[in-house]
């Protein structure tokens, strides 16, 4: 990977062109998401989460530029567009934070249901760990396990994945109204996925750092009350999972 390819203007031009081509194609998925984006609920989430959306788009711009310049075996959009109603497009819905926010409404039934989610999307790409088993077992991910680790790391796919998690957490805090769990449990579910996904990235792309985090930062309590403590120096955060959560703590 050429580390000099951190060129915001060029990356944004690449991203915008890809998204524009996808929008012009008018796929069934686009029409579905356009309808979601007209709702008050979406507009509330978008207004609250605009900083996260902007960071998502910055990450997508960098991925677009790297992939266009480097020509990897797999592109991010190629991997994801193979599934569902967008398979005949260029898949650039995943280069746009607004549209990817809109995809979350169907997955969560308008942020009333946690649904199912992978705790390590890198495992979906590489097939080398259990963090994507919940999706693998559903049988719809046709490209599961086909992406080399170097492709995932060098093209910086984790930037988009982490941006997605940040938007989903923000939207949960803004508009979640769950049916079967408390709002705190709903939000904590996605907060913990956010933390686990970051560690997942380190495991694949920065293994030495991942080992240090495991050894020095993350501690599972032995109290039996579903508490997990992330501590560093004088800073400590305790995440409490409700009984309804089935989230796998992948790295603790």
Description:
- The longest helix has 23 residues, at 183-205.
- Strands 1-2-3 form a three-stranded antiparallel β-sheet.
- The protein has one domain (8-214).
- The protein has 252 residues and is mainly alpha-helical.
- A hairpin with a 2-residue loop joins strand 2 and strand 3.
- Helix 1 crosses helix 4 (50-70), helix 3 (40-48) packs across helix 10 (157-175) and helix 11 packs across helix 12 (207-216).
- The chain has twelve helices and three strands; from the N terminus they run ααααααααααααβββ.
Average pLDDT metric: 83
Low-confidence parts, pLDDT < 50 over ≥5 residues?
A: 1-6, 226-252
**Main pleated sheet:** 3 strands, antiparallel
Shape: globular
Instruction: Work out the count of structural domains.
Output: 1
| Beta content | 5-15%
Q: Name the helix and strand elements from N-terminus to C-terminus, one letter apiece.
A: HHHHHHHHHHHHEEE
Strand order, main sheet: write it out: 1-2-3
Tell me roughly what share of residues is in helical segments. Answer: 55-70%
Tell me the number of strands: 3
CA gyration radius, whole angstroms = 18 Å
How many DSSP helices? 12
**What structural category arises from helix and sheet content?**
mainly alpha
The CA-CA distance between the termini, in Å, is 31 Å
Write the layout of secondary structure elements.
Layout: H1 8-25, H2 28-37, H3 40-48, H4 50-70, H5 76-81, H6 97-107, H7 121-126, H8 133-136, H9 149-154, H10 157-175, H11 183-205, H12 207-216, E1 218-220, E2 227-232, E3 235-240
Antiparallel strand pairs: 1-2, 2-3
